[in-house]
User: Fold this.
Amino acid sequence: MLLSTLAFYGRLKLPTVLWHWPAFCRMVIGPWGRAVALGIGLAMCLAALIEIWELVDRLLVRFMGESER
Assistant:
């Protein structure tokens, strides 16, 4: 969520070591780099939501299975 929030508000900061390659830094901080970071962040959020959904589903199945016995 942090990556997607930083990309959405345009607050991606790069370490000073990476500024030895200015073309790379311009690409990462530019609109395409922000879009890629936002996409990665949203994909990670979706994966976390799916994982939580599966865990809750397993807990509910286990709980409901024990209550029927």
About this structure: The mean pLDDT is 83. The chain is about 80% helix and 0% strand.
